[in-house]
Specification:
alpha+beta, seven-stranded mixed beta sheet
């Protein structure tokens, strides 16, 4: 089941993001810990209340959290290059037990369609350079890397990907 997420879903979404960040330890430097904002339920709640935020959550028939996707305007993103017609993929996380289930594909495609419907002409995202599974997924979904990896506040390099939303 897929439903638009609201600020009331912030705790569930934050738990999903934490589970995703826990998998980063496989490639992060020794002793790495996720940034504190990964656990900031109130910050997610506030962000979901913003007019430019869109978030879709996936749950099982028994209402068990599967994952979610969210995007915002690049104008309100913390990342550089803020453009009116550029959507920023804020989050796409699927809990590990549901990897390979098709949930991530459905979520990203629904986000792409919604961003296009909202008038964005492109979508960008940043993903860890060493997160090969995610990188292969995004490339299968039509995203292309824009440049070499760059340093990030996450403690490891990230790669920017973009995808045109024209023809959606």
């Amino acid at each position: 089941m897929y439903a638009l997420a609201t600020p009331d879903d912030a705790a569930e979404l934050t738990a999903t993001v934490r589970s995703g960040f826990d998998t980063y330890r496989a490639f992060a430097p020794p002793g790495w810990e996720p940034p504190s904002e990964v656990q900031d339920v109130d910050g997610v709640r506030r962000r979901l209340g913003d007019a430019d935020a869109w978030c879709l959550a996936a749950r099982t028939q028994a209402s068990e959290p599967v994952g979610h996707v969210a995007f915002v305007s690049s104008m309100t993103s913390r990342w550089p290059e803020r453009l009116d017609d550029l959507a920023h993929l804020w989050q796409l996380f699927v809990r590990p037990p549901f990897w390979g289930s098709g949930a991530a594909t459905t979520l990203i495609r629904r986000a792409i369609a919604e961003a296009a419907a909202q008038g964005y002409i492109a979508m960008r995202l940043y993903t860890p350079a060493d997160q090969q599974r995610a990188r292969r997924f995004y490339e299968r979904e039509g995203f292309a890397p824009r440049a070499e990896p760059i340093p990030s506040e996450l403690g490891f390099p990230v790669v920017e990907y973009r995808r045109s939303l024209r023809d959606q």
